[in-house]
Amino acid sequence: MYSVSRSPANGGAKCSRKATDPPVSSILIIHLICRFVNLIMFSSAKYSYLALRLGLAAVFLWFGIDKIVHPSYWLNAWTTTSQFVYLCGVFEILAGVSLATGIFSKFFSALAALLLVGAAVFFGSADEIARDIGLIGGLIAVFLWPVPRNRF
Length: 152
Prior knowledge:
Layout: E1 2-6, E2 13-17, H1 24-69, H2 71-77, H3 82-101, H4 105-123, H5 126-144
């Protein structure tokens, strides 16, 4: 790249470029592109985590509210006890609020993943299991997402 030679006459360093070095403008452009990509990568990680949490929160709030408002559908599909349907509805609403706000989101994402695994094992059909696998993957991603150091 650059060669540095010391001249005893002036005591300073003299820099000279080699003929094979890329022009300074291309180095500057490459540097700016790398800074831009770095900025996008780190800011997109923050926004993708938010989008993941909000998407999962919408699903859990939707199904939790539906279990409270229309328990008869869920009674026929799952179980014969209405207390279990209401309990699952309240839990799904709590998980949705937790995921939306980010408060205790790792705790509720782990519990919600366990709930979905249990529902898939005991009550699931092929269509429900396919949906639940996607939700479980998203919840595991929230649970394993690294916590920033300077959070508080």
